[in-house]
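SEVERITY: medium
COMPONENT: batch folding queue
REPORTER: lab tech (J.R.)

DESCRIPTION
The queue accepted two submissions in a row. Attaching both inputs and their returned structure tokens so the on-call engineer can compare them side by side.

ATTACHMENT 1
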Amino acid sequence: MSERPLLVIDGLQYAKWSEKIFREMREGGVTAVHVTISYWEDYDETLARIAEWDRRFESFSDLIVPGRSAADVRRAREQGRTAIIFGAQNCSPIEDDIGLIEVLHDLGLRFMQLSYNNQSLLATGCYEREDPGITRMGREAIREMNRVGLVIDMSHSAERSTLEAIELSQRPIAITHANPHAWHAARRNKSDDVLRALGESGGMLGLSLYPHHLKDGTDCTLRAFCEMAARTAELMGVESIGIGSDLCQDQPDSVVEWMRNGTWTKARDYGEGSAKQAGFPPQPAWFQGNRDLGALAQGFRDAGFGEADVRKIMGENWLDFFERSFGPAP
């Protein structure tokens, strides 16, 4: 009997969703994807995004299904479909109402960042000069997110805020899309202190394939990426790493302006990369989209990972994290 195919899970994407991409997910053997449904959207706007996904689930029911639990992901795998897991890259959807945390969880939200680059009502983003840490409301939000099973994501948050979130949370948190700062000094990449604390607490890191987070950007090699993964596994434990590609496939460059500017500024905030350009950088040749996700496995093998660890990184670690994280607190 042939060995069971790899379980492939991507910890973060914000693609321009279409039948084409859903079919590419299936061609790449991708079992589950955490998709961003909100950046700066408030509660009502987030409901509109969820309604859009409901229509996609109906139109492409042979390709995608809602993913609200680890059981949903396993079922999707057996059925040859891709489970779509909702996440927010900011706390904008809860506005200033802590009761909306449970409401959004009931509607399928499973990840929420406490901040996106800027200071929020909950925590500090990585682009702020000062980082006073988790706010009063942030402490209450963490407690409530722990209670209902909404995962705390600190991918775009600053150092002190991230370390405090790890310490305050009674359940493991996630950094769904980032790399080690020691490997590539992007503002969004994470310090060894953060990664060590994340691993010790049972949290998860999704290694990013977004060029601004890669050493040498678009020219980063698969070998360099996988060797970085090996060093990260030594630092925080192989059980705490997976893939969080941050893939924005088929999105127009104008979407970057929405990510950076939102509704909080009239000026252009270019973020990382060129001071004059806010477009998407080209992906590395070895990772153009969902069809290439499964091919990462051979790169991990070549970097010295054994087969059991390759399977963990490609998807089993995320599935275990979903199992522990998506339901109410025990």
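ATTACHMENT 2
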Amino acid sequence: MPCDERMYSAQVSGLSDLTECRVMVVAAPSFDASAEHLLASINGRFIIAGTAYGGCLAIETAIRAPERVAGLWLMNCNPGAHPDLNAVRQTSLRLRSGHLDQVLEEFATAAIPDTAAHCRTAFMEMGRDIGADVFARQSDAALTRRDHWDKLSSIAAPTLLIWGMADKFLHSEIGEKMATLMPNAQLELLEGCGHFPSLEQPRLTTALARNWLLRHQQTLT
């Protein structure tokens, strides 16, 4: 949120010999509807990857349809309910009031370290192309996030957690706690990386995902 296929372009390219990669932008009015849309758009079992908002949606989907989700790849996400619903409502209001650029700049500054200014630019370009309407609908849907901390232990599928340790939104302690609760999780912490590992450290992120896919190849297929 609010990103497109450019967020994962390095991974799509670097993993295409191992798996068919498909990037989806989802902006249904709720997390329930978003998960149902994902499940209806894909045949059979699949691996679902997501960052932040997308990671929360991946968890929702895995809990809803464990028989369909062969594996999860989660980055810098919070399995709990959103901690500040008023802030979410204000974001939606500002987006619908013509303040897209200001919101994007605030998000980019908070999410991405100063050392990765080019990634801030890329994030803002994606956000402008996605547009205020889609961004606002995704923001609205965040209000419907449920707390799934108590359900993480039921997710038996192999799970890769890649976490940027310089993330100002979500501290690495969240990823560490998730790794202890999920029975088949592997946690990788990235020094100097913020909220978007696939964008900020694309080569390392791709390499970690590749090794994970190969390690669990029989289970994930």
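NOTES FROM REPORTER
The beta strands are 46-51, 69-75, 159-164, 185-190.
No errors were logged for either attachment.
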